[in-house]
Amino acid sequence: xxxxxxxxxxxxxxxxxxxxxxxxxxxxxxxxxxxxxxxxxxxxxxxxxxxxxxxxxxxxxxxxxxxxxxxxxxxxxxxxxxxxxxxxxxxxxxxxxxxxxxxxxxxxxxxxxxxxxxxxxxxxxxxxxxxxxxxxxxxxxxxxxxxxxxxxxxxxxxxxxxxxxxxxxxxxxxxxxxxxxxxxxxxxxxxxxxxxxxxxxxxxxxxxxxxxxxxxxxxxxxxxxxxxxxxxxxxxxxxxxxxxxxxxxxxxxxxxxxxxxxxxxxxxxxxxxxxxxxxxxxxxxxxxxxxxxxxxxxxxxxxxxxxxxxxxxxxxxxxxxxxxxxxxxxxxxxxxxxxxxxxxxxxxxxxxxxxxxxxxxxxxxxxxxxxxxxxxxxxxxxxxxxx
Length: 387
Known about the structure:
Elements lengths: L1 E5 L3 E5 L1 H7 L2 H4 L21 H18 L5 H12 L12 H8 L7 H4 L2 H9 L4 H8 L3 H7 L5 H14 L8 H7 E4 L2 E4 L4 H19 L2 H20 L4 H5 L3 H9 L5 H8 L5 E7 L5 H4 L3 H15 L7 E3 L12 E4 L2 E4 H4 L1 H13 L1 E6 L4 H12 L4
Parallel strand pairs: 4-7
Antiparallel strand pairs: 1-2, 3-4, 5-9, 6-9, 7-8
Helix pairs in contact: 1-4, 3-4, 3-10, 4-8, 4-9, 10-12, 12-20, 18-21
C-alpha cells in the first residue's frame, strides 16, 4: 500500500488500485478544482482541492469496508469508486453543475462515459474491476453504493471535517470514527446500529451549521451566481463545447472567461473580488411560492424584467433562488429498539433543524453597488415580494 500524508487523517494508506488511479490524468485534474469553489473568497485558507478530498474519502471507505467485514474484491471496488467519486465534476465544482446538467443532461456522479475507455478503464481492468460496476457505485447504486453516495456516505464524513479544518470554523467537526463503527447493513439499507440516534444527529447538526456559515455564505452565493451567468454567456458566444467546458479546471475556465470580450468584465470582477452587492435578501415568507420553485428559464426572464424596470444592463441583475429547502440526511436510517426507523421520524432535533432551514433561507437579487437601490425597487415589484 502507498502511504500519503494528509492534513486531516494524518498518514493514509491506499490500496494498489487507488494508487494506480491516482496517477491518471482525470484524477490529477482534481488537483486544480478547489473543493469549496467561491467559498475561498470568504475564507482565505479554504484552498483545498477535490484531489485531497478524494484521497480522504478513499481512506474512510477503506475503514468502512474493514469494519463491515468486507474484505474481498468488493472492498477494492468500493475504494476505487471512492477515489473516483468526484472525477466527473466540472470547473468550480457545484457552481457550474447546473450548466452541465442543462446542456449535457448528466450529473457529476454520472461517470460512465469517463470510465468506459482511456486511462481509467485500463487501470480498473488491470485490477479486474468492471468500469460500469465502479460507475454504478459512484452513482450510489446498490447496497455498497450507499457507502460512496448516500445519506451516511464517507464522502459527507470527509468533506465536513476537511472543510471545517481548512476554513477554520469549528462547526463541521463530526466523530466519523463513531459513525464508521456504527454502520450496518439491514435489509439492503445502510443504517446506524442501535444506540446511535445522537451519532446521526451530530452529522445533521454539523451539516446545518456548515450550510449557514460556510456553504451558503452570501458572498459565495453572489460570486457563484456571477460565475454561472458569465459561464453560460461564454458557451453562448464562443465555439467552446459543453464537453470541453466540463473538463476545464478552475484556472482554465477563469482564463477563458477573461479572454472572451462578452465575459471579461464579470470575470475580472470575480478574479479581483469586486463582486455585486445584495439589492434584495428576502426571507422565505416574503417570497411567492411560484418564485421559490421557478424554472431556470423563468429566472432569466425575471432578471430581464427587473433590469428593464430598473434601467440597467441585463447582465447587471442576478436572481438567486435556492429552491425549496431540503435535508437528505434526515432520511438516514437508525436502529431503535431493534427496529429500523428514519431519523426524521425519531428525532425532534432533526425536525427543528428542518424548520431552521426555512428560517435561514434567503432569495437574493444582486447588482453592482451603484444600482442596488433601483434594482431593489424593481425586483420587489416584478417578483411580488412582501414589503
